[in-house]
Amino acid sequence: MKLTALTTAFLFGAGTAMAAGSHAGGHGHDDGQMAGHGHADMMQVGQPGTLEEASRTIEITMRETSDGGMLFEPGDLNFKPGETVRLRIHNAGEVEHEFVMDTHDNNEEHRKLMQKFPEMEHDDPNAIRLAPGETGDIVWSFANTGTFQFACLIPGHMEAGMHGPIHVQSN
Q1: For position 41, what pLDDT does the model report?
Q2: pLDDT tens across 139-148, in order?
Q3: CATH number for the domain including 46?
Q4: 0.90 exceeded by pTM
């Protein structure tokens, strides 16, 4: 049974607006966490950007390890407030993986929801799900300083090591 993020939000009585694009927009991102920016697509971690605005491309690989772990390479990301980047994400693993950017708390809430509905499909701009061998892009503008998180929220993947910090700092 595949549930969309909208169906899931309805089932849990969430009165949130859906973001358009590829993951967490329907999981509490329009509940006052937008820091007063006034746009429906702004999250604490930022908002979708355009390729023309991107100042650089960051290559990110998702894969499994021989000892059963799962990881992202690189394991942490650093950006400046206001910076727009293209995240080129490649699944070099043998199973499906996803890349989701958000606050730690929002990712944890979403991870728990995905444990209940592992086939849940997403359409949010801060995430992408890739089959083995696939590559995809997220173009993102980091608006606020702070430490955020990227993770694979497919059940068991985060627990196997698929998460890391996103540092957005002026220095």
Answers
A1: 58
A2: 999 999 999 9
A3: 2.60.40.420
A4: no
| DSSP track, the chain | ---BHHHHHHHTT---PPPSSSSGGGTTTTSSTTTT---TT-BTTBEE--GGG--EEEEEEEEE-TTS-EEEESS-EEE-TT-EEEEEEEE-SSS-EEEEEE-HHHHHHHHHHHHH-TT-B---TTEEEE-TT-EEEEEEE--S-EEEEEE--STTTTTTT-EEEEEE---
Structurally, how many domains does the chain consist of?
1
Residue 137's domain spans which residues?
Answer: 5-168
131 vs 66: CA distance, rounded Å: 19
Structure tokens at 89: 């994400």
